[in-house]
């Protein structure tokens, strides 16, 4: 049975305690699970969309960074570009936002390049995908420390380690594929025929004849064109995303990002909002703060977060999305059975 290590902390305002606990939990999981550490281990984070004020701030990660330094391990913050248009759509904007949000303690790697064009296809041969587009700089690392914020998510139901792995490590095209529309669409009313998308497309799949048109047979769904269009004319349809198969696709992408790796998962259950950190506006928590969790199993750590949330709340808080755990367990991503080990 997998172990999930846990430190209860009842307020996100206790930054020093949270940071200290996260460092101790990392040490505990490394020692108890006999994990060999790589010489360079990036920290997978979420910088929070501009205007969001409930993402987990980097000052909570100092204990983890210090532990790595003490063990002569180099690190960086690592993230991928997002699918929708915002302040994290391109590498340049992403780096600026990360710094504005205080992620200055380590260098920053945007794993899928300038616009999402850098990815590796990881073979998994599962029900929905035979291959997954994982951000290149994630795919070529042997080990990550996956730092997740536990909260709700409009499509996935809830977001934790699996979401951080599956959606968070996918290139922009991988994100598009998980949303079931691997070929973007063009709004002909918005398109000005500037050809910027056609010049960027790595497959020469876009033809511009006054208006742009995508050749579906050539398009590989990398989604770079969505980021580049100055008119915001290239989009994907959310139709079909809110289905059980979305949870399956998410779990399969998580499986791809973890395949053959030696990742460690640390989850921060604070600021538990209904929706996720990609939403660039003020949100209020819907449950009490819980604490910090660590494990080598992304399914077990998500299950532990949900179980304690429900127990503390006296009700089932995030009803949707629990199928992700069932399906994740079925495909070998991890185990729903776990032992909770509380640390002092
Ligand atoms: S970049 Fe946008 S506006 Fe320019 S041709 Fe492509 S779709 Fe049209
Ligand atoms: S049209 Fe080209 S740039 Fe756009 S998603 Fe398809 S392959 Fe990528």
TrEMBL record:
Domain named 4Fe-4S ferredoxin-type: residues: 182-209, 210-239
Record-linked SUPFAM superfamilies: 4Fe-4S ferredoxins
Keyword terms of this UniProt record: 4Fe-4S, Iron, Iron-sulfur, Metal-binding
Entry keyword Lipoprotein: no
GO MF terms, alphabetically ordered: 4 iron, 4 sulfur cluster binding; metal ion binding
Biological function: Ferredoxins are iron-sulfur proteins that transfer electrons in a wide variety of metabolic reactions.
Name recorded for this polypeptide: Ferredoxin
Lineage of the organism: Bacteria, Bacillati, Bacillota, Clostridia, Eubacteriales
